[in-house]
Amino acid sequence: MDTTVGNNMKANGIEPARSRKHPGSWETFLKAHWDVTAAVDFTNVEAWTKVGLTTFYLLFVRELKTRRVNFPHLHYQSERDVDKDDWVSAA
């Protein structure tokens, strides 16, 4: 292995995937990475506001270890703004 990742793995006693006799299980992987693993999801909610029906688009991240939920982005779009902004669109 002539890569930085390869050198790092070799220095920590981890053989290349092709050479490993016993690949780890999902349980082992999750236990090893639980502190830095997060679930990311995206949803929308419609609510009546002063300007009419408004759609709120919400991106949220849940840290699995602490169960803390973060909201890195919230976007809203009212009925009257539908043609102005296509922040979310189907491909």
Task: Provide keyphrases for this structure.
91 residues, alpha+beta, 2 domains
Structural account:
By secondary structure, the protein is of the alpha+beta class. It folds into two domains: 1-35, no CATH class; 37-91. It has helices spanning 4-11, 26-33; strands at residues 38-49, 52-63, 69-78. Strands 1-2-3 form a three-stranded antiparallel sheet, with no helix packed on it. A hairpin with a 2-residue loop joins strand 1 (38-49) and strand 2 (52-63). The longest helix has 8 residues, at 4-11. Residues 1-10 have a biased composition (Polar residues). Residues 1-23 are annotated as: Disordered.
The ordered H/E elements are HHEEE
Number of helices: 2
Q: From the alpha-carbon coordinates, what is the Rg to the nearest angstrom?
A: 22 Å
Mean pLDDT across all amino acids: 79
* Quaternary organisation of the protein chains: single chain
Number of separate domains: 2
Number of strands: 3
Low-confidence stretches: none
| Distance N to C terminus | 39 Å
Portion of residues in beta strands equals 35-45%
The description of the largest β-sheet is: 3 strands, antiparallel
Work out the helicity level. Answer: 10-25%
Q: What is the global morphology?
A: elongated
- Class per helix and strand makeup: alpha+beta
Strand order, main sheet: write it out.
Answer: 1-2-3
